[in-house]
């Protein structure tokens, strides 16, 4: 009997990018293309089954061998492109085609699940969403999204990341971040992120 191999399809959608001025949107697309080519696909090449590529203008698609690298990739995208908010949706399942060089050349249930998950996330204002990973991961993704929308004036600062990442996103002095961490019970947030990552590893 042939064993079914499950992959993790990852879709990233820049929320509201079409509201950017044309020049700003062009810069975003060019920078995104460069980041995929020169950094993301190289740094996580050991975890990638089919390379990340741009689809539908400001959306990225990639295929992972499993959940390893998913958390870091999502936060890399958010940190590199803070001028927009991102929905990162992941679908776990098999393929119906052979592997290709990029995710744009591949299709199957994992991509269909990821697409449905992305559309549901848009309606529910979730920024990290999962299909096919189980109830625990889904519950933690809900927590993550609620925290994310509550932390910055625009609603885009929570859910992990180093102090340097947060300083860059919020454009504040490092001491302000340290103060914010104390007031917002940062150890509890960090513990939640650790649980989230553990749940992802177990789901794989």
Key attributes of the depicted protein:
204 residues; alpha+beta; Alpha-Beta Plaits; five-stranded mixed beta sheet; 7 helices; globular
Report the CATH C-level class. Alpha Beta
* Average residue-wise pLDDT: 82
Main sheet characteristics: 5 strands, mixed
Task: Please estimate the helix content.
Answer: 40-55%
Distance between the termini: 21 Å
CATH H level, superfamily name: Reverse transcriptase/Diguanylate cyclase domain
Would you count the extended β strands for me? 5
Strand content: 15-25%
Helix/strand order, N-terminal first: EHEEHEHEHHHH
Structural Rg: 17 Å
Q: Structural class, please?
A: alpha+beta
Characterise the protein shown here.
The chain contains seven helices and five strands. By secondary structure, it is α+β, with helices and mostly antiparallel strands. It has a single domain, classed as 2-Layer Sandwich (Alpha-Beta Plaits). It has a five-stranded mixed beta sheet, sandwiched between helices.
